[in-house]
Amino acid sequence: MWSLFRIFVGNDIMRIDIITLLPELLNSPLNHSIINRARKAGVIEIIVHDLRDYSTDKHKNVDDYAFSGEAGMVMQIEPIDRAISKLKSEREYSDIIYTSPDGENFNQKIANELSTKENVIILCGHYKGVDQRVRDHLITREISIGDYVLTGGELAAAIITDAITRLLPGAMSDESSALSDSFQDDLLSPAVYTRPANYKGWKVPEVLLSGNPKKIEEWKYNNALERTKNRRPDLLSEEDM
Ligand code: ADE
Predict the structure, then answer these.
(1) Is-contact 121 96, C-beta < 8 A?
(2) 142 pLDDT exceeds 90?
(3) Per residue in 28-47, pLDDT tens?
(4) For residue 65, how far is its CA from the centre of ligand 1 (angstroms)?
(5) Would you say the CB of residue 148 lies under 6 angstroms from ligand 1?
(6) Is 115's C-beta closer than 6 angstroms to any atom of ligand 1?
(7) What dihedral do alpha carbons 170, 181, 160, 147 form, nearest 10°?
(8) How many A from CA of 150 to the centre of ligand 1?
(9) Residues 51, 87: contact at Cβ < 8 Å?
(10) Domains plus CATH for the chain?
């Protein structure tokens, strides 16, 4: 549905700019498999920027001590503002995201929403985080990928980019498979099986071998509902339970 929305509104190719202190860390996740293919096919443009390129310090430093005396360095506003301002002078951005453990929890709904945007910047946090004025004046959205603390925001940025990219039209060879993902209908995905139909006596459910599409659809729905009840009852409404 979200992919179709993108086709109907006729968006240009989506662009994600990632600003980071560790560009190499993003090399592998953004240059393999579906994301790599999507980039090559012109489905998405992903540009990684080294924040140090925007430092005017002779040692390319981009951090300093916290005024509050807390241990740990704080990312300074100047290079970040310079990087974001340069990008904003070149095109419009729908969202400027900061990855941080105290942001809103990332989920499929946010991935769907972001996949409809045209251009997005992701600023990766590091050290003790960024000067609060960055968050107050330059950032439009703060996202956490879970209630745990990583050494930096790069892996979070890679996860957010991955979840968005696979939703874009043309990213997956079988478009419908993104639509039948877990969480897309507030249900987890049903179990899947492949050949052999009988392995050491562990059998594939009979109905899946029946060739009856209606019965198979019914089984898939019931299996998805049952799994969701057992594993993630919080996703279901009262009447589903
Ligand atoms: N940076 C450090 N921990 C993070 C998290 N859980 N989510 C997003 N960015 C982070």
Answers:
(1) yes
(2) yes
(3) 999 999 999 999 999 999 99
(4) 21
(5) yes
(6) no
(7) 180
(8) 5
(9) no
(10) 2-165 (3.40.1280.10), 180-235 (1.10.1270.20)
